[in-house]
Amino acid sequence: MTTALAPVVSRNPADPSDILVQVAAPGAFTAAGVVERARAAQPGWFLSGASARAAALGAVAAAIDSAADELAALAVREVGKPVTEARAEVARTAAIWRYYAQAPFESTGAVHEAADGVGLLLTRRRPHGVAALITPWNFPFAIPSWKAAPALATGNTVVLKPAPEATACAQRLAEIVQRAVPAGVFTVLPGGPTEGNALISAADVVSFTGSTAVGQAVARTATARGVPVQAEMGGLNAAIVLPDAHIPGAAAHIAAAIAGYAGQKCTATSRVIAVGAAHDPLREALAEALRALPVGDPADPATVCGPVIDEKARDRVIRAREGLPVIAAAAVPDGTDGWYAAPALVEKVPPGCRLLRDEVFGPLAALLPADDLGHAVRITNSVPYGLVTSVHTASLDAALHGLDHLDTGMIRVNAPSTGVDFHLPFGGAKASSHGPREQGRAALAFYTSGRTYTLAPAGT
C-alpha cells in the first residue's frame, strides 16, 4: 500500500489561521521528471550566450525592484519577517541578480604557454548541468537568489525546492524568473523530504542551506553520487566584548543580533562573552537594549522581533530557557495570536546545557564571563559550530588576535554577527559548513567544473 504524502502547507506565523499555500506534495517521480526537463533545457540555455544570460538576470533584477513592496509584504505574511527587514531583503535580492548579471562576461579560463614551447595550454570552466537548490524559509527571496543567480549565469538550469513554510515566496520568485528565461530553465518544486531526496539523487550539482542534521545527510548522498555539493548549516555564534569596547554600541549590535527577526538567522548571536571588566557594564547595557526592543506585528515598521516560524519553534525557545536565570526579557504584547517568543538574555548557564551546544534558532542568548581574550577565544571555539563571531574592541592588536585564533569562517569586528556581503564568500567551519563557499566569485567556481586543454600543432 502506498503511503500518502503529507500536503505542503504554509501559514502566517503572526496569524496561524491565515493559510497561504495548501497543495498536494508532488512526490518523487514528479521530482525526477522536473530534473529531466531541466536537463533537456540546459544545453540551449548555456549556448544562448553570455549576452542572453546577462540580459535575463538583469531583467529579473529589474522585475524584483518593480515588485518590491508586494514581495516584502509577502515575506511579512508568509515567514513573519519584520517589514523593515523584509524590504531590505528584497532590495538585496535585486542587487544579487544585478551583480551576477555581469558574470557571464567574465573570463571562464586562461591560456598558458606549453613547457616545451610548442602549442598552447588552455583552462576553461563549464556548467555542471542541473543545479538542485534546497533552501530554508528565513530568507525566502535572498537565499534562493544567491544560489540561483550564479548557477544560471554560468549556464546551469535550476530546480529550487524551498522549505514548505516559504512556498508562496518561492512560487512568486519563480514567476518573475520564468518570465526572463526559457521554459525548463528555472523550476520550483514544492514539497518535503521525499521531493528533496529525489532531487538530490538526480541533479548534477547540489546547494543546501538548512539544519545541520539534514545538511550532513544531503552532503553524504551527493558525495556518494560524486556530484559537487555545498551545505550551509547551523551556527552557535558568539559575540566577544573586550573591556575597551564601546559598550553602548556593542550592546545595540548584540541585542539586534539576538532578537532581530526573532533570532531566526544562522548568523544570529546566541552566546555573549564578556571579557574581564566588560562584564558588568555590558550586562546592564545589553539588558536595557533587549528590554527596549519592539516586539509585535511584523507588518509594523517599528517591530524588530516578530513571531517565530511555528509552534514547535516557540516551544523550543521556551524549553531552552527553562531553569536559567533571566537577566532581561522583552515583552510580548497582549492579545497576540501568533507564535511569539520573548527575546531573552540568560546567565549562569551550566556547562553542557543545551543552549551551549545546540542551535535554538530563536531570540535567546547566554551571557558568559571570560578572564581574558584567550579564554574568550577558547569558549568561542568550544562548540561544534564555527560560522561567525563578532569581536567588539578598540584595539587593532586584539582584533588581529581574534582573526588569527577564532575557528570560524567569518569574523566581524565592531559589527553584529548578522549581516551578509553577497559579493564575498560566505561560509563557516566545522559543523556549520560543508564544501566550497557560496556567494561572490566563489559561487561562480562552485557551479562550474574546470577543464584543461592541450592544443598542439598537427604533425607534432
Task: Please tell me what the overall shape is.
Answer: globular
* Major beta sheet summary: 7 strands, mixed
Task: Report the portion of residues in β strands.
Answer: 15-25%
User: Helical residue percent?
Assistant: 25-40%
Q: How many beta-strand segments?
A: 20
Give a structural overview.
- 38% of the residues lie in helices and 22% in strands.
- It has 460 residues and is of the alpha/beta class.
- Strand 3 and strand 4 form a beta hairpin.
- The protein is globular.
- The relative contact order is 0.14.
Brief account:
With 460 residues, the chain is an alpha/beta fold.
Overview features:
single chain; 460 residues; alpha/beta; seven-stranded mixed β-sheet; six-stranded mixed β-sheet; 14 helices; globular
Describe the protein's topology.
Layout: E1 8-12, E2 15-23, H1 28-47, H2 50-66, H3 68-79, H4 83-100, E3 109-113, E4 120-127, E5 130-135, H5 142-153, E6 157-162, H6 167-178, E7 186-188, H7 193-200, E8 205-209, H8 212-225, E9 229-232, E10 237-241, H9 247-259, E11 269-275, H10 279-291, H11 311-320, E12 326-329, E13 344-346, E14 364-370, H12 373-381, E15 385-386, E16 388-392, H13 396-405, E17 410-413, E18 429-430, E19 433-434, H14 440-446, E20 448-455
Helix pairs in contact: 1-7, 2-4, 3-4, 4-5, 9-10
